[in-house]
Every structure is written in C-alpha cells, then in structure tokens.
Specification:
This protein has 530 residues and is mostly helical. The chain contains 21 helices and 16 strands. Helix content is 48%, strand content 7%.
C-alpha cells in the first residue's frame, strides 16, 4: 500500500509539473535568442516577462519575421511581452530609524494575492506574501522563514499565517514547495523550512496549527523521501541516498538536466569549462541552486572551481538536520490526533537520522560537522557554517557543541559577524560574505547550549554592520562583507540586491532578542567573552 502511495504521489507531482510549460518550452528558439543577446543584462528578466498573447501566436510571428532584413529582436520582445518593473525606487528616511524603515518596507515588499495570468511564469498564490526584494519578485521558500521572524516582531501575524497557507497551497497543488512561485522553479525545492514555519505559527496560534498543516507536512516529507523504498545500497534516487550500511539520508537534487532558464547563458558558458557531461553539470548546478547556497566551494572539488561542481555527490549536514526536524514535527502533529503508532514511526526515523548525522558528518579531528561525500565515502574537507545546524536542532552532544562554539569563535567570527566559509573564491556563499539566515541559525543554536555570550557577540557584530550600512546607504542588503566591513559584499551571478526580506527579519528579531539600542550600537566595542 505504501509503495502504491509513493507511485501515485510521484505521478501527481510529475503531472502537475508537466502541465505548466516554462518560458523555454513556450518559446523555443526565441527564448535562446533573447537569453543569448544583450537585450536584458539579467537572464531573469525575460523569464519573468508576461506574454501579451498566446505563445503560439507569438512564435508564429517570430518565425515569420526573424530572418527578414532589419528584424529587431528587442522591438519584437517589447511588443509582445510585458517586461517586469524593478521595485527599487523606494527612498527611506534614514533619520527616522531602522525600525521605521523595516515597518515601511514590509508594505513595499508585500504582494497581493496573484491574479492568474495566462502563459505567465508566475505560479499564482491565493494569499498576500512578502518577496525578498530587488530582482526577486516572487516568494522564495527558505527566505520566507527568516522574513517571518521579523514579521512576528512587527506583530504582522496575519501575514505569517497567509504565507504558511500559501506554502501549504503549493504543496497541495504541486506536491512540494518549489524554489519560488515560478514555472521554471518546478523542478526543485529549497531547504525544507516548512516545518520550522509551522512550528513558528504554532507558537502564535497554538498546537492546532500542527493538526491543520499535518497533511502538507507529510506530503512534503514524501516528496523529499521519494525513491527511498526502492533505492539500493550505495546508490541514490532523486533526493535520497542509501549508504552501504542501509542508512537513508538526503541530498539536494533538481529533476532537470538543462541550463537554468533564469541564468541560461551563464550556465551554458560555465558548462563549456567543465569536464563533466553537460547534463551532469547542469544537474549539479541546479542542485546547488536548490540548496540556496548558489554558489560556494562547498559544492566543488578540491580545486575550488565552479566547473568541478559535485552537489549531487554530497549529503549536506544542514539539509539532514532540517529533515530531522521535519520528522519530529510530523510526530508531534500525529500526537495531537492520538495516532501514537505513526508518531512513534516518525520519531524512530528521526532517531536513526540523528545517529547517521553523528556518524557520517561529525569530524572528531576538526571538531566540526561536515557534509559527507557518499561517492567517495568521506567527509568534505570544506568547513562551512552549515556545520552549525546540529546545534540548532539539539543533535550535537554537549562536547560537540563546545567544539563547534570554539570553531565559530576562532575560525568564523569576523568583525562583521560570521563568515560563510573560509575560502575567498569569488563565489557569494564563501568568504568574505556573511548572510542573515546563517547568523540566526548559529546564534539560536549556541543559545540552546548556553553559549549566550558568544551568541550575543555574533549578533552585536552583525547588527552593527547592518546598521552602519543602512545609515550610509538607506538600504538593508542581501549579504554583507563581514571580513572588511568597509567594503561591499561581492560574488554571485547578479548585482548586490537590497530590500531585503531575510536581512530585515533577522535584524528585527536580534534587536528585540538582545534588547539592543540601535542608536548606541555603533559605539559599542566588539569583543568575545566566554
């Protein structure tokens, strides 16, 4: 019966994906021509554009005109598509303070329920939601949890509820939560924070929330565990890996082996530099995008170069911590309806996963939690802030937590907060950059093991940097240079974005958590005491 359920689940999921064509599928030839041109500096612009008429009609006109003398591709696109407008003209009053700035930004970044537009790449959502900002005009999965932390501090609990309902809607409709609500994201998800969102909402509205969202929690879990019943030892299927001892853990995966439509030309060019078959390279690139860490030497081989990307060979420690939390959350939801037998099964799965994380990801030589390369049967040599996640979910022992705290303090803590890795590669999820969600997960995890002084010091340094940049520019940014706080963060496939949902959320949460006077913060000396 269970195997039948998984087959039906897979059929429904793939059918939902197949029914919604992406821009490349709708506009073959035209898509490649536009993305390979310089009409739009950012490949994401065209895939977010809305066709003004039926794609078949547009393609007929394109094929009739494209080879004629004087054909103007840009004019053709502008005549046939509504080009998305950048919402970056918001001007703040810096003197009014950062809290006022963020409260106003929630209104700027909020989107009304989507109107279902024919042939658009937007996956319409039924409730209002918050977007990150900048080029990110849609809801993003893992970003949203950290945005919700700030919405809670701003007493915007209705918005939080609406966003969780939107994610439940996506699970019901597509079988999982896509990277974002776009058709070209329907082949992958992102770090599974839905259980974290449900737990956050339960703190606001009560345990009934766990019962209400139990079907979606289980459905998302089945998506992540797809293929687990059939995969053989030493092999992988979709998002699951079965190790030689029979242990099943998760990895990041994308069902497509084509260039990402929103970064088409970059992927095509990068593939030319790789020795991997193009399909394998594209799948690894896409899997890294599913991780949210696009890109980082975390996913590369020892050379530290993008063409060697091997995301699908790795069992990420942070992903499996999130899966552990998902299993425990489902068990709690089942307890609410007195289904003790099924709750016990999910707790057992969580316990097995915890054992596996400690066995395969803990490195006693370095005192750090690493990703595990299931093909090479060894831990990754790259230490990253993903190693902090076992503290957040109370997986680490007290001694392991002590060693991780020492590692954070000695290796990752910089003048502006925690650096993502110690590699200066030019990739945005490496040094010298720091990111709001990773600051929060480290701080929250440290406090769970009573490393309160270190947690507060990380928060203070991060907030000091955020607020200084805000006072200079009137903006809160996607990422920050935490090594040299006078320089702007760099790396990545696009210019630095402002807005910015998760930065706003984490900042508000930390300011309130530590009762920090933002006016005095810049004058405070930075020091670490433990």
């Amino acid at each position: 019966m269970r195997r039948l359920f998984l087959v039906v689940f897979l059929f429904i999921t793939l059918s939902a994906q197949a029914q919604i064509p992406t821009p490349r599928q709708q506009f073959p030839g035209l898509f490649e021509a536009v993305q390979s041109s310089t009409i739009f500096p950012d490949n994401k612009t065209f895939v977010d554009a809305t066709p003004k008429k039926d794609p078949a009609e547009i393609m007929k006109a394109y094929n009739e005109q494209k080879d004629k003398s004087g054909f103007d591709l840009k004019a053709f696109v502008l005549a046939n598509f509504e080009i998305p407008v950048a919402h970056n003209n918001f001007q703040t009053d810096v003197g009014a303070g950062i809290r006022k700035h963020i409260d106003t930004l929630w209104q700027v970044l909020q989107r009304r329920p989507d109107e279902a537009k024919p042939f658009s790449s937007t996956l319409a959502l039924p409730n209002p939601y918050i977007v990150p900002g900048g080029r990110f005009r849609e809801i993003y999965y893992w970003d949203s949890y950290f945005t919700m932390l700030g919405l809670l501090e701003s007493h915007q609990t209705k918005v939080i509820h609406n966003m969780v309902e939107n994610f439940a809607y996506l699970i019901d409709k597509y079988g999982f939560i896509p990277n974002g609500n776009r058709s070209y994201y329907l082949t992958r998800s992102q770090p599974p924070f839905f259980a974290m969102m449900v737990n956050l909402l339960a703190k606001i509205e009560g345990e009934k929330v766990l019962v209400h969202f139990r079907p979606q929690l289980i459905k998302e879990y089945e998506y992540w565990m797809q293929g687990s019943m059939a995969v053989k030892s030493g092999d992988a299927a979709h998002r699951v890996v079965r190790l030689n001892d029979g242990t099943v853990l998760n990895r990041y995966w994308d069902e497509s082996d084509q260039p990402r439509e929103e970064s088409y030309i970059k992927d095509v060019d990068a593939a030319k530099e790789s020795t991997q078959p193009a399909a394998q390279f594209y799948q690894n690139i896409r899997a890294a995008a599913a991780s949210g860490w696009d890109f980082s030497t975390r996913w590369f081989d020892a050379s530290g170069k993008l063409p060697t990307i091997q995301t699908t060979d790795l069992i990420p420690v942070d992903l499996n911590c999130l899966m552990y939390n998902m299993e425990l959350t489902i068990a709690r939801s089942l307890n609410q309806i007195q289904n003790a037998k099924l709750a016990k099964m999910y707790r057992y799965r969580a316990a097995r996963r915890k054992e596996a994380i400690l066995k395969y990801c803990w490195n006693p030589k370095t005192g750090w939690f690493d990703d595990y390369n299931w093909k090479l049967k060894q831990q990754s040599p790259i230490e990253t802030l993903a190693g902090e996640f076992p503290l957040e979910f109370k997986i680490a022992s007290d001694e392991q937590a002590r060693l991780v705290a020492d590692g954070l303090k000695n290796n990752f803590l910089k003048p502006g907060g925690l650096v993502t890795t110690q590699n200066f590669s030019g990739q945005q999820w490496d040094a010298p950059n720091g990111w709001a969600p990773l600051q929060y997960m480290a701080i929250d995890g440290l406090e769970k093991y009573n490393y309160n002084a270190l947690a507060k010091e990380i928060a203070t340094r991060w907030l000091k940097l955020n607020i200084r940049v805000f006072r200079q520019t009137g903006k809160l940014l996607e990422k920050y240079n935490v090594v040299d706080t006078q320089l702007t963060a760099g790396g990545g496939e696009y210019p630095l974005q402002d807005g910015f949902g998760w930065t706003n959320g984490v900042l508000l949460h930390l300011v309130n958590r530590y009762h920090i006077d933002t006016e005095q913060l810049e004058k405070a000396p930075a020091e670490v005491r433990n």
